[in-house]
Write a structure and sequence with these properties.
homotetramer, 436 residues, alpha+beta, Alpha-Beta Plaits, nine-stranded mixed β-sheet, 13 helices, 19 strands, 26% strand, Bact_exopeptidase_dim_dom (chains A, B, C, D)
C-alpha cells in the first residue's frame, strides 16, 4: 500500500471487520446468478441514453431486493433507495452504457449487437469499458447490504447512471433534480474495472482522472470528380494534414513535465474512390489536468485546424463544436483515506495500490462537485493475474494487455466480480453507521 | 473545329444532310416529354447495379417505340434492337447509374433519395454525373431513328448500361454474351455530358480518357482508449500520414510531361472521439494514360502504404485490393473523323472542338475493345453559356463551373437536351446506310 | 526524325553540304587539344559570375583564332566577333558557369574544387550541367568557322555567357548593351548536352523549356532550448510541414494534362541538436509552361507557406523573395525547321529527334526575346550509347542515367565532343551566307 | 520552501551563520570587477573544447587568488585547488563553453563572435546558456573562500569544465585522471542560472535533470536536377516527412504521465534551389527520465527514420549515430537537504523553491557518479523580477521569458551575480569544516 494511506485505519463509527465479513458471507450464494447476469449484460450492450433493456433489468432486480426504485432519472437512469434508519446517506454509483465498438474477444458471450448511433448510422455495440461489470458488482453489493441491514444504519442511494461514455449522464441525473428528490450525499463512492491484475484495487487521492474535452471538427472543401482535383478543394487531404499537425500540440507545446493527450478517434470523409467529397469530419478527445494546459491545448487545436483549412484554400472556416466534456475527477483525500483504509483492512495491503493520476476521464465526480460531497472513486483489476505478470516481465503491458475501449477488452469474470462486489460492499460499510 | 477533322466530310454511303434534317424535324414534338422524363430520372437516381426503376422506364419506352427489348443484360442492363434491313450494325450506348452524393443544386427536381450502399450504409444518391441526361437523349434519338426508319437501313442496337460508375457495367453486359445475342457492332457510339458550354460538342481521336485503378486500402492498427495512445497503434494517424505521403507520387515520381492523378476519395476510421479504432480504410482512384506511368504509380502507392504502416509499427501489413478498373478509352481516329465530320456538317465548325485527352475514365470503350469495333465517344456541354463565358473571362472555370461528381453538378436542361438528342441521331445516321 | 522536320531541306542561300564537309575536315587535327581543354575545364569549375579562369582561357583562345575579343560583358562574359563580309549576323552561344555540387563521378579529371558561395559558405564546385562541354564545342566550331572563312560570308558573334545557373547571365550581357555594341542577331543558336545517347540531336519547335521561378522562403519561429519546446516555436517543424504541404500543389491544384514542377532544393535550419533555432530557410524551384499554371502555382505556394507558419503560431509572417527567374524558352518554328533540316542532312534522320517540351530551363532565349531574333536551341546527347540502350531495355532510364545537376553527371567525352563541335558548325553554316 | 526541506537545518560541523556573513562581507569590494569580468566573458564566448581565452583568464585569476592551478585537464579544463588543512574535500564546479547561436539581446556587451564549428563552418557564438555567469560567480566565491580561509578547514577543488554543451567535458576531465590527481570529493556542488526570478534558488532532490540522447541521422536519397524529380529520390522531402512523423513519438507512444521530449534541432539538406541533393542530415535531441521511456523513444525514432526512408524509396538505409549522451542528473537527497538547508537559512525560505524535475540535461552529475560522491546541483534565477511577475500574471512565462539557448537569453547582471556568488559561497561553507 502507498505510504500515504498507511496510517488511515478504519474510521470511527464505521462498520467493523466482523460486520463486513458477515455481510460478505452471503456472496457465494449469489455468485452464479451474478456471473450469468454479467454475461447477459455483456451480450446485450446498449449505447448511451439508449440503455432501455439494461435499466429495465436493473429496476426489476432493485425492486426484488427491496429498494425503492425510480426510473427515468436523467433520461434512462435508475435510482434505488434503501432507507435504513438514521445515519449517513451514501451514494453508490455504477454507469451502464456501452460503446460503438465491434467486439473481437471471441468469448462465448461476446456481443454481436448493432444499433443506430446519434447520426442514424448502424454501428456495432460492445461493453468495451466494463460498465456491465460495474452494474453487476453494484447489484451484488446492494443485495449484501440489503441482507445485512440489521447491522448498519443510514441510507443507501444506488445510482445506475446512463451515458457516461459521452460525459452527459451524471449531469443529466443531477439536472433531473437528483439531490432534491433523493437527498444530499455524505459521500459518493464509485468504482471502475481496468487493465490491472484481477484482485488489485487502486485509488489515488487528489486529481485522479483527467479532464476531457470531446470536440467535433467539420472541415469544408469543395467536391468534384476524383480525376479533376484541380477543380476541387480536397477535404480528405485537409483532414489528413490536420490530424498529422495535431500531433505537434503535445510534442511541441506542452512541457515535458505536464500532461496532455490529444486523440483523433474518428476521421470520416467521402464514400467513393472517384468523388472528392465536400467535407470531412474529425472527432477529437483531449485530456488535461490543469486549466492552463487545457487552455493551451484548446487554443493550439483551434489555431491548427483553422490554419490547415487555410493552407488548403478552404472556402469556409472549419466548425469546431463540443461533443462533451468531463471535468477533472478529484478524489477527496480524507474520504479516499477512509475508504482505502477499509479496503486495505479487508483485502490486505498487498492488494491495494496508488495508481497515480490516469489520463482516463469519468463523470462520476459530477455527483460530488454538484452536491459538495466528498468522492472516492477507485479501480479494480480485471486482467488475468498470470497474463499480467508475464507482460510485466516482458515489459509489454502497454502493448499486450487490452485496455478499456479496445475490441479485445474483456475482464476475466473471476476473481474480478467477487472483488468488485466485495470492494463496493466494504466501502459502503466504511461509511454507513453501525447499527444501533 | 480542330484542323485534324477539317477534311473529314460525310462518309460515302451515310445519310445525307436532308435525311438528317428530316429525322430531326420530329424532335420538337417530343421535347416536353423528354424534359419531363429527364427531371423524373434526376429526381429518382439509383446506385450502380440497382437501376431497377430506371431500367423499367427505359424498357417500357423502348417497347413503345417498337424496339425489341431484352432486360437483365449484365444484371440490370437493357438492350433495345431495331432491325431495319441490310446495313451496318450501330451500337448506341447510354449509361444510367447514379452516385452516392448528397445533391446541393437547389433545383426543384433535385434528388433527396437515399439508398443502401454495398456495405449496407444508407447513403444519399444523386445523378451527379449526368447519366440521366444520357438516357433521355438516347431515348429521344431512338424515337427519331424509329420514326425515320424509311430513310435508313441497318440495325440499331441501343445499350442502356448499368454500373458505369464502378467500372463494371460494360464488362457485365459483355460477359452476359452481348455480342453473341445482339451481334457484333460495326461501330460503337456514346456520349457524355460535361462542364462545357451547352451546345458544344468535343471529341479527341486516340487515347481520350484515362485508365483508372480504384483501390481499397485497409490499414491495421491496434485499438484502445483515446486517453491511452501508448497502449494502441493509432490507425487514424497512420491513415492521415498515408494520405499526405501519397501526394508525393504525382509531385515527385512522375515527370512533368507525363500525366497521373492519385485521389483518395474516401478515408474512414473510427466512430467515437475517445476510442482509438483498430483499423482505417482508404479508397484510392488513380488515373494514367500509359502502362509505364501506371506501373510507376501503382508501385509507389504500394511502397508508401506499406512503409507508412511500418512507420506506425502496424501489427499487420496493409491490404490493398482492387475495387475496379477502367482501361484507357481510345477513340478510333477514322471513326472519330467520320463522326465528327457529320457533327460538324450539322452543327457548324464553331460548335465542335477537340478537348484533348481528359483524366476522366469511362468503360464505354469496353464494348469496342471486346468486339474489335471502332469507337467514337464524344462530350456534349451542359453548362449555361453565359455562366461559362463569365468564368472563362474571370479565369475561374476550374473553380466555379461545377464538374461531374460535384453535389452542384446540374446540366441546364436546354439546349443540352436538344443538342444531345440531335448529336446522337446525327452520329447514328452517319453510320447507318441510306435507305435502298 | 520527327515527321514535322522531314520536309525541311537546306534553306536557300545557306552553305551546301560540300562547304560543311570541307569545314569539318579540319576537326580531327584539333580533337586532342579540345579533349584536353574539356578535361581541364571540368577539373576547374567556377561558380556563377566567378568564371574568372574560364573566361581568361576563352578570351585567349578566341584571340588566337583571330576573333575580336571583348571581356567583362555582363560581369564575366566574353564576346568574340568574326566579321567576314556581308551577310547574316549569327549569334552562337555557350554558357560557362558550374554548380555547387560535390562531384562523385570518380573520373580522373573529376573536380575537387571548392569556393565561397554567395553567402560566404565554402561549397564544393562541379561542372554538373556540362557547360564545360558547351564551351569546348563552341571553341571547336569557332576554329572550324574561322578556318573556313573563305567559303562563307557574314558575321559570327560568339557569346560565352556567365551565370546561366542562376538565370542572370544572359540578362546581364543584354543589359551591358550587348546589341548596341555587337549588333542585332539574325538568329541565335545554342546547344545543351543532356542525358541522351551520345550522337543524338534533339530540338523541339515552340515552347521547349519551362519557365522557372526560384524563390527563397524564410520562416520565422522562436528559438529556445531543445528540452523546452513549449517555450519555443519550432521552425524546423514549420519548415518540414511546409515542404510536405507543398507537394499538394502539383498533386491537387494542377490538372493532370498541365505541367508544373515544384522542388524544394534546399532546406536549412539550426546547427545543434539541443537548440531550437529562430528560423529556417527553404529554396524553391518552380517550373511551368503557361502564365495561368504559373500563377496558380505561385499563389498556392504563398498560401501554403503563410498558412503553415500560422499553424505553427509563427511570430512573423514568412518572407518569400525571388532568387531568380527564367522565362519559357521558345524555339522559333521556322528557325528550328531550318536548323534541324541542316542537322538532319548532315547527321542523317536517325540521329535527330524531337524531345518534346522539357521541364528544364535556360536563359539562352533571353538573347532572342530581347533582340527580336529567332532562336534555335537544341540538345546533344552525352550518355554512352550502350549504357543508354541497356537502361532503355530495362525501363530504368529515369533512375539509372545520371541527369544534369547530379553529382554523377559526366558526358562521355566522345563522340559527344565531336558531335557537339560538328552540330554547332553545321547550324552556323546553315545560317551564314555562302561566300560570294 | 518545500516541506521536504523544512527540517533540514545547518548540518553539524558546518560553518555557522556568523562565518558565512563574515565571508560574504568581502563581496561588495569585488562586485564591480566581477561585473566587468562577466561582460567581458559574455562578449567573448568560445565553443566547446575551444575555451582557450576563457581558460587563460580563469587560470590567471585563480593564481592571483592563491589557488594551485592545473590547466589542460580534459583538454581545455582548469582545476584550482586551495588546500586549507584537515577536512572535507569539496568540489565546486562551473562550466564555461558557449553555443553556436547568433545573439539578439541588443545588450551593449552582446557577442558578435563567430568561430569554425566541428564541421569547419563559420558559425556565430553566444553565451546563450549563462556559463559566463557560472564562471564569474564561482571566481567570486573562490575569492571569498580564500579570504575567509581562517574560518574554515578542508580543501576546495574548483572545476572549470569545458564542453558541457556537447555532454563531453565532465567525462573528459574524469578521464584525465581527475580524482587520482585532485582527490576524491566528499561532495560535488554546482549551480546553473535559469529563467527564474533573479534572487530565487531552486533544487530538486532525486532525479532533477533528464537524460539526453543526441543523435545524428543521415538520410540518403538520389540527387538530380530540380526540374526532373522523377529521376531523383528527394532527400529534402524524406527529411521533412521524418521530422513530421517524429512528433508522434511523444504524442502517441509515451503515456500522458511519463515524460519525453524529442527535438530536431537541426535539419540541413541541399544548397541550391534547382539541385535535388543526394542526402539530408537531422540532429535530434531526446530527453527522458527512465530507461523504459528512453528505450521506447529510441526504438520509435529508429523505426520511423527507417520507414520514412523506405516510403521514399531510399537507395540506402539511413544512418543513426550518437552525437553525445547525458545521463539523468540525480541530486543526492541528503546532500541536497543539507545544502538547501544552508541556503534557506541564509536567503530565507521565500527565496528557495523546489522546481521539480526539469527536462534540461547537465553532465555535472558525472563528477558525482564517477567518484561515488553525493551531488547537489541547484538553479539560481536570472530574470528581472518585475518582468517575471508580469509574465506570470499574464500566464505567458513560457512564451515571454527567454529561456536558456534562446538568442535572447541574457540574465540581468544584478542581483543574479550577487546571489550566485553568495549561493556558491554558502553552499561550500555548508560542507567545509569550521576552523579548528
Amino acid at each position: 500500500m502507498h505510504d500515504a494511506h498507511a496510517d488511515t485505519g478504519p474510521a470511527d463509527g464505521a462498520a467493523t471487520a466482523d460486520v463486513i465479513r458477515q455481510a460478505l458471507d452471503g456472496h457465494p450464494a449469489q455468485r452464479g446468478d451474478l456471473e450469468d447476469l454479467y454475461k447477459d449484460l455483456h451480450r446485450n450492450p446498449e449505447l448511451s441514453f439508449a440503455e432501455v433493456r439494461t435499466s429495465g433489468i436493473v429496476a426489476e432486480r432493485l425492486r426484488d431486493l427491496g429498494y425503492e426504485v425510480t426510473t427515468g432519472v436523467g433520461r434512462t437512469g435508475v435510482v434505488g433507495v434503501l432507507a435504513n434508519g438514521e445515519g449517513p446517506r451514501v451514494f453508490l454509483r455504477a454507469d451502464f452504457d456501452a460503446l460503438p465498438v465491434a467486439e473481437r474477444t471471441g468469448l462465448p458471450y461476446a456481443s454481436t449487437a448493432t444499433a443506430a448511433d446519434q447520426d442514424g448510422h448502424q454501428v456495432p455495440v460492445m461493453h468495451a469499458c466494463g460498465h456491465d461489470m460495474h452494474v453487476t458488482c453494484l447489484l451484488g453489493a446492494l443485495r449484501l447490504l440489503a441482507d445485512a441491514r440489521a447491522s448498519w444504519s443510514g441510507t443507501v442511494v444506488a445510482l445506475f447512471q446512463p451515458a457516461e461514455e459521452i460525459g452527459k449522464g451524471a449531469q443529466a441525473m443531477v439536472d433531473d433534480r437528483l439531490f432534491a428528490r433523493f437527498g444530499t450525499p455524505d459521500v459518493v463512492l464509485g468504482q471502475h474495472v481496468g487493465p490491472f491484475p484481477a484482485g488489485a484495487l487502486g485509488a489515488h487521492p487528489g486529481p485522479a482522472l483527467a479532464a476531457t474535452d470531446a470536440l467535433r471538427v467539420q472541415l469544408f472543401g469543395k467536391g468534384g470528380h476524383g480525376s479533376r482535383p484541380e477543380t476541387a478543394i480536397d477535404p480528405v487531404l485537409m483532414a489528413a494534414h490536420t490530424v498529422v499537425r495535431l500531433q505537434s500540440v503535445v510534442s511541441r507545446e506542452i512541457a515535458g513535465g505536464d500532461t496532455a493527450v490529444v486523440t483523433v478517434g474518428s476521421m470520416r470523409a467521402g464514400t467513393k474512390d472517384n468523388i472528392i467529397p465536400d467535407d470531412a469530419e474529425l472527432k477529437l478527445n483531449i485530456r488535461t489536468y490543469t486549466d492552463e494546459v487545457r487552455g493551451t491545448v484548446l487554443a493550439a487545436v483551434e489555431r491548427i485546424v483553422k490554419a490547415e483549412a487555410a493552407a488548403s484554400g478552404a472556402p469556409r472556416e472549419p466548425e469546431i463544436s463540443p461533443i462533451g466534456r468531463f471535468p477533472v475527477l478529484v478524489n477527496d483525500p480524507d474520504a479516499t483515506g477512509r475508504t482505502v483504509g477499509a479496503l486495505t483492512a479487508h483485502f490486505g495491503p498487498e492488494a491495494v495500490f496508488d495508481p497515480g493520476p490516469a489520463t482516463g476521464s469519468e463523470d462520476c465526480g459530477t455527483f460530488a462537485t454538484a452536491s459538495g460531497a466528498p468522492l472516492c472513486f477507485w479501480f479494480f483489476g480485471g486482467t488475468d493475474r498470470e497474463q499480467f505478470a508475464a507482460a510485466l516481465e516482458a515489459g509489454t503491458v502497454a502493448r499486450d494487455i487490452p485496455s478499456n475501449h479496445s475490441p479485445l477488452f474483456a475482464p476475466v469474470v473471476q476473481p474480478t466480480l467477487d472483488v468488485g462486489v466485495a470492494a463496493m460492499t466494504v466501502a459502503a460499510l466504511a461509511w454507513l453507521a453501525p447499527a444501533g
